[in-house]
Amino acid sequence: MRQPLEGITVVALEQAVAAPFATRQLADLGARVIKVERPGVGDFARDYDQTVHGQSSYFVWLNRGKESVELDLKDAADRELLDAIIGRADVLVQNLVPGAADRLGLDAATVRAGRPELIHCSISGYGPVGPYRSKKAYDLLVQCETGLVMSTGTPEAPAKAGVSIADIAAGMYAYTGILTALYDRERAGEGATLRVAMIDALGEWMSQPAYFSRYGAEPVRRTGARHPSIAPYGPFRTGEGTVFFGIQNEREWAVLCDRVLQRPELTGDLRFRTNTDRVEHNAALAAIVEEVFAAYTAEQAIELLDGAGIANATLRTPEQFADHPQLAARDRWRPVDVPGGAIRALLPPVEVEGREPVLGRVPVLGEHTESVRAEFGVRA
User: Fold this and answer.
1) How far apart are CA 180 and CA 93, in angstroms?
2) Are 302 and 314 in contact (CB under 8 A)?
3) Contact of 13 with 69, CB cutoff 8 Å
4) Annotated catalytic residue, options 53, 227, 324, 368
5) What is the largest CA-CA distance in the chain?
6) Where are the domains of the chain?
7) φ and ψ at 62, to 5 degrees?
8) Hey, what CATH topology would domain 9-206+329-376 get?
9) In this structure, are residues 59 and 65 in contact, taking their beta carbons and an 8 Å threshold?
């Protein structure tokens, strides 16, 4: 089956999450991704945990379908091999520590001087200039710098997001930037120099709370699992379990009052007249909702909400998500081989009718070193 990025070669000087997330998307679309790893150690994400058949949950998530090549970039023969690979590549992605690419002569200006058709993508924490340019940047730290931690949690305690959201944001913008550059190269023949900073990527996602606080002249609201600026929107206790639901407009508010709560008079209550009023009196509103829901189980409350066309959700654990009935009904899982066994992997979010993504195996450290040396004719 033909793949969209078939024939595209990507060299990945990558580690941790951000760059591997970007290049894994390319691999799923059929690109050849040659992952360069440190001899004997590899990408340090390989050692974050050993929960998936002895492998790291991070690594198996981010590195399927790639070739692993062990290279010491300070060794002359290994560097010759890397240069040979780059000489045939379409894309180079790197997220080495700040300054490392420049010191190694792997920066965009140096590498693209002789190959202007190459697409060079650098992912960093804070960008190439400015007082933070040399700071190391890990996911939680960028969450702190962008205000996300102060926007999440409860009034008593701020909290981080439960996933590597800064890394994922940067990786996704790198991925879309590379696709854009490949498309533009087809038309203009020129490659591109791309830079993605984690602070910019997550900062884009933080724009709404930043606007709300700056122009609303009030501190950020940390409201736990409730929405800080829409009500009712969040978790509500029932007689047995908790349900989540959200109201987006006045029509839905009226339907909730009439058909679910059976309290139509609430629409005329001045405390709940507009969304802004409901947010101000959210505690009183939640008490009313939970008083009504106390007569139902969570399943019964969801049936009521579904019947009224009110958006709702069941609170699930990550393990329960893996057995989600909607994913099973849509056949969204595929087997992927990893060292030591196999896992079920979720298909990429974009469905292309008539085309199955690659979802290749997760490589053992250095698994492809010798075959790549033979292919490019450079021996150690």
Assistant:
1) 15
2) yes
3) no
4) 227
5) 81
6) 9-206+329-376, 233-316
7) -100, -10
8) Rossmann fold (3.40.50)
9) no
233-316 is classed in which CATH architecture? 2-Layer Sandwich (3.30)
Nearest 10 degrees: Cα torsion 233, 237, 238, 242: 80
* pTM passes above 0.90: yes
Computed on alpha carbons and rounded to an integer, the radius of gyration of the chain in Å comes to 25
Q: Are 67 and 367 a contacting pair, CB within 8 Å?
A: yes
Distance, C-alpha 354 to centroid of its chain: 26
For residue 93, report the phi and psi dihedrals to the nearest 5 degrees: -120, 130
22 sits in which H/E element: helix 18-28
Token digits of residue 308: 């009224």
Task: Residue 360: name the closest of 97, 88, 6 by CA.
Answer: 6
DSSP state of 258: I
Torsions phi, psi for 70 (to 5 deg): -85, 120
Closest CA to 288 of 255, 247, 323, 260: 260
Does the active-site annotation cover 120?
no
* Tokens coding 138: 């890990």
Tens of each residue's pLDDT in the chain, 380 residues: 789 999 999 999 999 999 999 999 999 999 999 999 999 999 999 999 999 999 999 999 999 999 999 999 999 999 999 999 999 999 999 999 999 999 999 999 999 999 999 999 999 999 999 999 999 999 999 999 999 999 999 999 999 999 999 999 999 999 999 999 999 999 999 999 999 999 999 999 999 999 988 898 788 889 899 999 999 999 999 999 999 999 999 999 999 999 999 999 999 999 999 999 999 999 999 999 999 999 999 999 999 999 999 999 999 999 999 999 999 999 999 999 999 999 999 999 999 988 899 999 999 999 999 999 999 988 77
